[in-house]
User: What shape does this take?
Amino acid sequence: MTVIISVLFQLIFSRYYSGSSACDKTSLFALRNLINWRDVITDAQQKPAPCKRFVDLILDADIVAAALVFFGMVDVKDTPTKHGFSSEMANNIRAVRARYFSKVLKEFILTFIVDGTLYERHFANIQSLVEWEAVQRNQPVLANGRFPCRFPGCNSSFKHDGVHRMRHELSHNPPPRIPAEPSLESTLPDPSDQNSDPKDDVFDCHCGFMNMALLLRNFRDAIKEGDGNRIINCIKMFLLHFKQDGSGSTKYALEALYHLFQVLALLSPREAERLKWNRTVNNQGGYGNNVAMDVALEHDNHALKEIIRGLGANITEDSVRRVCRAFFILIKLLFVLDTEMNVNKVSGKHTKKSVKEDLIKVVKTLSDQHVFEKQSTREPMYCFPDCPRDYLQLLNTKELFGWINDHKNNISLEKRPR
Assistant: This one.
């Protein structure tokens, strides 16, 4: 799962970070120059730690700046003039307050993070394709496996349900009624629509960045909590982004797809549950202390190398094999000895420099530039012209549906995915 996180960070940087965007005052590169974080570079996989901290900082700043606009506040110390808690609401019972909080939070998400109409269109297209597939699958077939002509009284039959069958049926007068392939609704905004919202690259760029960064933060939090269901839901969304990215993320899209195949269909219920919930491990106890299994394995490899290094000149194949077999016993023995002798274990957790001042700078810049106030007269961004509000606008639902069906057939035919 560490690889997925690294790839998602790189995908965010490839979409929203460019070294040529210094002239755009609110671009990620301009904000990086503002706070002078020079260790943040375009290749996020080369320097992952500073790039991850930078994405977290800009995400927090975007959330604060958007909240100031949403609640009608000048700064964080101001009193909300919109969507606030009235004295009457504050005195209500807890259930009413929680319901109001959920309502306000949902409105905030639909305003600045998620384009609800986009997903409604995708769901409608998928439903249309599912119904069309069911009609095609339930067509009458003759005993010899051939497809009959749908014109009453015609005895012709065809090996495939293809163009030849369709041309023959259209030659009849009148031709039989043939179910037409559904026309899918476009997920791209229509520029000719007079009622559509004005295009604002700055607003759309930061909303799209928040969408992807929050999705990635949700995935990282699901790993910390060991929440298998949430991990699977995040992988479903990653699949869509990898597929939309095209050839640059094909192998990651296939890995996500076949992972879902295993959880939802291929494995037995017992093995599927194991795959879903045994992806993280908690070696410390307590809530929110889970780590991914691949990260825990790297920690074990580091400890094993330390023990092997202690053998000095006595390193042989047999001695290394003996150490590997007794590894977990040795780790437990060392822990017990340290506990009984009151040896304080040095924490391996990295110290973090306070980013409060940098956060304040970024929030002030975003507020001064009115990033989260949609403006039709604002100039387009130099490096990100026509930036989509959500990159899933560019996802072809029909192509995605066919791609998934092709790989389902590959599994039934025992073919390799690539």
Remarks:
- The radius of gyration is 28 Å.
